[in-house]
Amino acid sequence: MDVSLMMNLSKNHDLNEKSEITFVEYFDSTECTPCAISRLYMWDLFINKHKEYNDMVKYVFIFTAFDTIDIAIDNYIINNQLVSGYWDSCGSFIKNNPHIPQNTKMHSFLLDQNNKITLIGNPLFNNKIEKLLNKIVRKRLKSNIIMNAKE
Questions:
Q1: Residues in a beta bridge with 13
Q2: What is this structure's pTM?
Q3: Which residues of the chain have pLDDT under 70?
Q4: Which residue range(s) make up the domain with 88?
Q5: DSSP string of 27-59?
Q6: Can you give the pLDDT at residue 58?
Q7: Which of 4, 53, 101, 129 is the most exposed place for a label (fewest CB within 10 A)?
Q8: Any idea what the CATH number is for the domain that residue 111 is in?
């Protein structure tokens, strides 16, 4: 099945800026927001572990939360230059992507440059997903090196 994500939250937040590879982590309103915040340090560790990919991989975190702790996440994400964080208080992301299941294990996506989903799953909690993610990124990196050499 060939599935793309609509990466528009609102007219103020268009996430369709082209990137070689985009990793999207979506936190919906059913998830405990303080719990999600407490796990953000794990993403810092993951991103640092894979820093050789930082020029190719754009990390995007989308939060759909309706509580009052917005400032804590905005500040955390602003201080981490490797990721982008977006508040989706209107639920636009899920409205534009109704094919996303409610199962939170299916809220982590690796997208290609056309926003087509190439991998679903969270590499923080699944070593097989992390290995697949590394394989996909290395393959893309290798093809970019070959393309640049031909130019």
A1: 10
A2: 0.77
A3: 1-19, 54, 65-83, 144-151
A4: 18-150
A5: E-TTS-HHHHHHTHHHHHHHHHHTGGGTTTEEE
A6: 83
A7: 101
A8: 3.40.30.10
